Amino acid sequence: MRRKLVAGNWKMHGLKAQLGEVEAIAAEAAANPGVDVALCVPFTLIAPAVAVAGGLPIGAQDLHEADKGAHTGCISGAMLRECGATLTIVGHSERRADQHETSHDAWAKAAAARRHGLQVILCCGETDAERDAGRAERIVQSQIEKSLPEGAHGDWLTLAYEPRWAIGTGKTPTLDEIGSIHAIARAKLRTMVGDAAAGIRILYGGSVTGANAADILAVDNVDGALVGGASLTAEKFVPIIRGAA
Ligand code: PEP
């Protein structure tokens, strides 16, 4: 039985002034023990967030694939662990678009995170042009094939299906479309890791709000949500946590 996971992605938002939101979200997570909750915050906020989160898992949004070295401006898995992170996102579509990261990069980063004992949320999802061309399913299958690290297991790896055209736009696929891609993603995992696929959570991400969360989270093979904008305040995030409980 896969527990639902609701993970917030604060992107490049959040100063210490927002730590009260972390505390309020942590309190709500503690009040809903049936659902897993996590927050992925900017690097600079990881240690301060851990200090107020009372055990709520705090994560990063990226890391470098190397363990250390001459990589100016980058962050290693060991550094994330040292400041208290327990998980990280890899392969987010904004990094694919802004930093030209590929599925191979996501694969290497996921493996690095695993080496350092971090939980991994591995993102995949098609662009609107790929969707319009009827290629969404093939793109998601191909991204999973190229980015799933060796030994992928639900104990440490979560997949997130995030159609790029749905991120931050207020648009979402229909529930049938979400169910169909999640089923395809599950089948792809099965061909790659066999029975272990049944234990790997597949989150949906892209314009999840308190208004649509419960419906989306009730779809087969949707094991939680990766939430951007609506995770920035407890007021918006709490209804999503409750929708998963
Ligand atoms: C995201 O950035 O992972 C995301 C899903 O963003 P939003 O919820 O704002 O669409």
TrEMBL record:
Record: residues binding substrate: 9-11, 168, 207, 228-229
Alphabetical keyword list: Cytoplasm, Gluconeogenesis, Glycolysis, Isomerase
A GO MF term: triose-phosphate isomerase activity
EC number, as in UniProt: 5.3.1.1
Active site: 92, 162
CDD domains per the UniProt record, alphabetical: TIM
Catalytic activity reported: L-erythrulose 1-phosphate = D-erythrulose 4-phosphate; D-glyceraldehyde 3-phosphate = dihydroxyacetone phosphate
Pfam families in alphabetical order: TIM
Keyword Isomerase tagged: yes
Pathway named in the protein's UniProt entry: Carbohydrate degradation; glycolysis; D-glyceraldehyde 3-phosphate from glycerone phosphate: step 1/1; Carbohydrate biosynthesis; gluconeogenesis
Main location: cytoplasm
Enzyme's top EC category: isomerase
Subcellular location: Cytoplasm
Origin: domain of life: Bacteria
Family assignment from sequence similarity: Belongs to the triosephosphate isomerase family.
The protein's assembly and partners: Homodimer.
Function: Involved in the gluconeogenesis. Catalyzes stereospecifically the conversion of dihydroxyacetone phosphate (DHAP) to D-glyceraldehyde-3-phosphate (G3P).
Protein name from the UniProt record: Triosephosphate isomerase
Upper lineage: Bacteria, Pseudomonadati, Pseudomonadota, Alphaproteobacteria, Sphingomonadales
